Amino acid sequence: MTDVTELGVAAIREGVAKGEFTAREVAEAFNANVAAAQDALNAFIVATPEKALEAAEKVDADRAAGKELGKLAGVPIGMKDLFATHGVQTTAASHILEGFSPQYESTVSQKLWDAGAGMLGKLNLDQFAMGSSNETSYFGNVISPWRRNDGGNAPLAPGGSSGGSSAAVAARLCPAATGTDTGGSIRQPAAFTGITGIKPTYGRCSRWGIVAFASSLDQAGPMARDVTDCAIMLEAMAGFDAKDATSLDMPVPAWEAGLSADLSGKTVGIPREYRMDGMDADVAKSWEDGIAWLKDAGAKVIDVSLPHTKYALPTYYIIAPAEASSNLARYDGVRYGLRDLPEGANLQDMYAATRAAGFGAEVKRRILIGTYVLSAGFYDAYYTQAQKVRTLISHDFKNAFTQCDVILAPTTPSASFALGEKSGDPLEMYLNDVFSVPASLAGLPAMSVPAGLNSEGLPLGLQLIGKPFDEQGVLNAGLALEQRAGFTAKPEKWW
Amino acid sequence: MSVDKATVAKIASLARIKVSDGELEAMVPELNGILHWVEQLGEVDVTGIEPMTAVIPNTLRLREDVVDADPLTGGGKRDAVLANAPAAEHGFFGVPKVIE
User: Over pLDDT 70: what percentage of chain A?
Assistant: First the structure.
């Protein structure tokens, strides 16, 4: 029999529908991979094999009864532990939410279950999605399944914040996983692990039931092996939700059916400000490859300018911490989660002790920065200024999109790095998101597609950024890259 | 602008995070590093530019003014609301005494 864990979303769905294998067989095979890799990769915070089996059995029964099957019927997936799942611990990889058992289901996860998907478990991540290497989780680092070809076996970062998702998909622990992207948290880990991930236009996927980090930036999206699988899954995740005030009240396009790698008549913009001094040679080479591939697909390629690019990161590191400091005020030791009540403490002491014990160092750092930039006397100099620069960054994209349909850039300035290599200096870690943050600030759909391996044998990703609501344009350009990159590399199994 | 130890202590108190003296010492240079870096935004000419309020133009909706318009977010959920409380008592959230 085929090793079903080598199959992606589309192939599993088709195999189940045709009766080549049962959904139960698929769930069992992935459950086994999840269990076997846990000690080495630490990709999951909680495994839920029984949930995967339960969903699979329902799909098998529906098929036997001749019922119509959903878009994701028989596909087991991993759920980033930032989505509230009814009765299944949801922690945002924090101590303060350890043991929290949601009494409701997030809109996005519910939509996935309704489409016939099953849950393999809750995936590890950077604490409250704050990080780029998955080194801030209270539940330990996620280890990338990839290793450098130097024989050194240094444990590498799977990227962040969706590091459990990226590691699990790359290691064949699940065919697809959910991610969330605030400043690059889907695209950067996808690039680091040789998989595909898309962040849709802000508002496409409901934020209801997703633990909030920076509400004006947070967007959910799929992470999977290829572009088609991402299109299928995004279709199931997206859609209007009255429970999210910023949800887009628009129909969900048929992205899967609309896929076409023919880019005739399309113009691709190459942002000159992304070509930075001292750019990694392998990254520069993969960008050149990408340009050639898109030309080969029929696109016209032009230079465009995004003049405020260099200000995107500092803008992000004012706005995101400001929103985080406000969002995370809810963790007070009263309504849910951890409570630390020292002997004789009053209410204020309890708040301060609980939050000191419950938040990790990076989360505290961002809350403090956010509190400072929002405080009286500093608000205009920092926060208002950042929101004005954000407007300029958004204008840059608007201007560029008068000349082109989609923008091509690297996803990250380098391939994955070793754990511990950047965690000592917060600023150095922040710089990892230099290419992904601008699209987040402008709310644009953006995707990372594997482009090839660097000289160390590690994956590199190419990023496509589209106009608002034009996920189709992004997916199509992604498909054109994918077909030409011919990326088939996968990490050699050592776990 | 730079922050000193007293300022960081004040911010931590506003944010309701207990910080030890040793932690404060370590945080001062870290936060200053980040603040100095973000201050480069000051050089951007923003004359006549409105601060961003909505990244994708959207209209604010009003829900129907009825009870339990959406049963998921409506009322009558006391036990579910209290289910994760660290110290629920008699159908309420329990907190340390606040009135002497």
Answer: 100
pTM of the model: 0.97
Q: Which of A80, A111, A122, A422 is catalytic?
A: A80
* DSSP H or E segment with residue B22: helix B21-38
- Taking an 8 Å cut-off on Cβ atoms, the answer to whether A308 and B44 are in contact is yes
Q: Which residue of A has its CA nearest to B17?
A: A352
User: What domains can you pick out in chain B, each with its CATH number?
Assistant: 5-43 (1.10.20)
Per CB-CB distance under 8 Å, the chain A contacts of B11 are 368, 371-372, 375
pLDDT in tens, B19-32: 999 999 999 999 99
**Could you tell me the domains of chain A?**
4-262 (3.90.1300.10)
Q: 3-class SS at B92? A: strand
Whether A375 contacts chain B with CB within 8 A: yes
CB-based contacts of A306-309 (< 8 A; 24+ apart in sequence): A306/A271, A306/A273, A306/A274, A306/A393, A306/A396, A306/A397, A306/A400, A306/A438, A307/A273, A307/A396, A308/A389, A308/A392, A308/A393, A308/A396, A308/B44, A309/A271, A309/A273, A309/A274, A309/A393, A309/A396, A309/A438
ipTM of the complex as predicted: 0.95
